[in-house]
Amino acid sequence: MKRTIFVVALSIAGFIAVWRFEPGPVHNTAVAQAPPPSIVAPSTSAAPPASPSPSTTSTPDSTNATVTTQGSVESSNYGTVQVQVTFTGARLAAITLLQAPDGGRALTALPRLQEEAMKAQSADIDTITGATETSESYKTSLQAAIDARGNR
Amino acid sequence: MTTRVEQVMGLPISLDLRDEGDFAEIVDEVFAWFRDVDARFSPFKEDSEVSRYDRGELTAAELTDDLLEVLELCAYYEQLSGGAFRARLPGRGLDPCAVVKGWAVQRAADMLKAEGATTFCLNAGGDVVTAGEPQPGRPWRVGVRHPEQPLAVCAVLESRNGAIATSAAYERGSHIVDGRSGTPATGLMSVTVVAGDLVTADALATAAFAMGSEGISWAADRPDCEILIVDDSRRVHRTAGLALAS
User: Fold this and answer.
1) Which residues of B touch A120 (CB under 8 A)?
2) What residue ranges of chain B have pLDDT lower than 50?
3) Which of A40, B114, B127, B234 is the most buried (most CB within 10 A)?
4) Model ipTM?
5) Is A140 on the interface with B (CB under 8 A)?
6) Domains in chain A, ordered, with CATH?
7) Neighbours of A41 (CB within 10 A)
8) Paired strand residues for B231
9) How many other CB atoms are found less than 10 A from the CB of residue B82?
10) Of the candidates A27, A126, A130, which has its C-beta nearest B144's C-beta?
11) β-pairing, B140-145 with A127-129?
12) How confident is the model over B70-116, as pLDDT tens digits?
C-alpha cells in the first residue's frame, strides 16, 4: 500500500508539473493509463512529497485483484485536482482524474504519448488515420494489414 | 459487402463498404472519380487544369466549378489560418493538394450515400470518412497512427457519420510548410482532427500542423471539430468531446 500511496503522490506531482508547463486550465475529466509501477515507483523508500490520505476499495485478495485508490484532494495554482488509481494485481492499470480545474479551453494536455499507446493496443480497429501517403509506406502499414484482413 | 484498394492520386485508397447488395457500379464510379480528380487537379501533371491555370493558359473565368470551389476553399483556410496554410507558396507553383484530397474523398463519400450506401469506411492515405455502423450499436473504430511507431496506434477513435484526418511528421519528416515563414512546420508530431466532413477535417489538420504549437489552441477553438494533437515533447492534447474508444 505504501508504494500505491507513493505512486498517487507522484502522479499528482506529475500532473501539476504538466499544468505549469502548459498553463491552459482544463475542464474535463481525463483518463490516462500509466506504465507499470516498476517504471513509476522510485527505488528509494523516501517519504512522498505530499501525502494523500487514500480511501481504498478492493476485490478479494488474489494476484489479479483490482484495487482502486482515491488520492486526496490537492490544490494548486491552477485549481483543484483529485486522482483515482486502479491496479490490477501489481500492474498500475489506470489513473482517473476525479476532479480537474474548471474553466478555460476544453483541452487537456494531461496524457503522454506512451500512456496513450498502451491504452490503444487492445482495441479492435477498422481503419487507420495518419498518412500512408506513398505506395511504399502503405505496403508496411497497419492500414495495409487491415485491408488484407478484409471484412469480418 | 465490397472492399477495394487502389493507388490513385498518389495515395492508397481503401473502401470498406458493408451494405448488402450490388454496389459495383458506384464503386467503379468512385474510383474513376479519383482518377479524374488526379488528372484535373494534380500540380504534377503538366496538362492538368491546375497546371494550365498556373501557367496562365486558363483564365479564372474558364475554370470549372470544381476548381473554383477548391480555390475558394484554399483561400478560406489561408485566411482562417493567418497564412500558415497556403496553396501557393512563394517561389512555388499553385498546389491545392491539401484541400483537393479531403474535398475529393468527401465528394466520393457523398456519391456512395446518394446511391444508397449507408455503412462504409473510405480511407485515402490516412484520411477517413465513415458512415453508419459496421455492426449494430458499434461505431467504426479508427486507430490514430502512433507518430513514432508505424505499426502502433496512439489512440482509437469512434466514428459513425463523420470524418477524421491526420497531418503528421513521420520518419521522413514533414512535407508541410508553414506558409508564414516558408519553412517546414515544426512543433507538432501529429495533428488529428475529427469533423462532420473531410474537407473541414483535412484542411484544419493541415493548417494546425503548419502553425506548429500555436495550432493546438487554434484548432481547439474551431467549432464543430475535435482534436488529438501530439506535440514535439510527446504530450497529447485532446478536446473534451473527442470520442475515444473504450
Assistant:
1) 143-144, 146, 152-156
2) none
3) B127
4) 0.92
5) yes
6) 34-46+54-150 (3.90.1010)
7) 15
8) B188
9) 14
10) A130
11) parallel
12) 999 999 999 999 999 999 888 888 999 889 999 999 999 999 999 99
